[in-house]
Write a structure and sequence with these properties.
The protein has a domain of about 120 residues. Helix content is about 70%, strand content about 0%. The protein is built from twelve helices and no strands. α3 crosses α8, α10 packs across α11 and α11 runs antiparallel to α12. It starts with a helix and ends with a helix. Keywords: DNA-binding, Membrane, Repressor, Transcription, Transcription regulation, Transmembrane, Transmembrane helix.
């Protein structure tokens, strides 16, 4: 209840700069100085935080880890290791992420060097073909090596566990290329005119017969397939010895 004496007292009015009132509601109670000061402090602190965030964001973006481009010289090393892994696990059953994990690198490293998975597989195909041709050329480097000795040395290498994996990969490629030639363009042609042609040419020089050279290459290829089907090499070994005896009996 307000007495007449209270009503006659002037109500204090807070004014800002130039004498303008801060509170325009005549019936509202005066604002507490503590609340006003606290509000100013909060606004000041928020401005400081926003300024710091604005300054820190570019620094954080600069500190954001970025994949370092691998050394181009590593491509051959990665290709060797990738071919070995794919030979063990197969072409169709391994993803790019699984291959990267097996190699101990990132998918970025693989795509940096090879592009897509299909491009990596194409590089592996070319690598396998090149390795086979190099192996045969090294075996036949000595022109004095007979056809029989050449077959023995080649077969000895074929029986190695690593060689079986590569042969399994080559056969898988051959089947896939026959079904999807557009996926591995030219592989079938290179398979018949690449290392097989090289082997036939080497044998032709020693046998003097195109037909006999082709027969020997086909027989060895069939024995390699038999070796894939039967883990015990006894039967394939015996068959190869028969072929070698046939060659030696003819002085080849």
């Amino acid at each position: 209840m307000t007495t007449s004496a209270d009503a006659s007292l002037p109500r204090p009015t807070r004014t800002g700069r130039g004498g303008s009132p801060l509170c325009h509601s005549p019936g509202a109670p005066p604002a507490s100085p503590l609340i006003f000061i606290t509000s100013i402090i909060i606004i000041f602190v928020m401005k400081i935080k926003c300024t710091r965030v604005g300054r820190e964001m570019p620094d954080q973006q600069q500190r954001r880890p970025v994949g370092r481009p691998p050394k181009p010289g590593r491509r051959a090393e990665i290709l060797d290791a990738a071919t070995e892994v794919v030979a063990e696990r197969g072409l169709e059953t391994i993803s790019l992420a699984e291959l990267a994990k097996a190699l101990g690198c990132s998918t970025y490293t693989l795509t940096y060097h090879f592009g897509t998975k299909e491009q990596l597989l194409a590089a592996i195909v070319a690598h396998v073909e090149s390795a086979l041709q190099t192996e045969i050329a090294e075996l036949a480097a000595d022109p004095g090596t007979s056809g029989a000795d050449l077959l023995r040395r080649y077969w000895r290498g074929t029986r190695e566990p690593a060689a079986r994996s590569y042969m399994r990969l080559w056969l898988e490629l051959l089947v896939l290329a026959s079904r999807q030639p557009e996926r591995f363009p030219g592989f079938q042609e290179r398979a018949s005119t690449g290392w097989r042609a090289l082997a036939a040419d080497i044998l032709r020089q020693r046998t003097g017969s195109d037909a006999l050279a082709t027969l020997i290459v086909a027989a060895v290829t069939g024995l390699e397939l038999d070796l894939m089907l039967d883990p015990t090499p006894a039967a394939a070994d015996a068959a190869l010895e028969q072929l070698i005896t046939f060659i030696e009996d003819r002085g080849l």
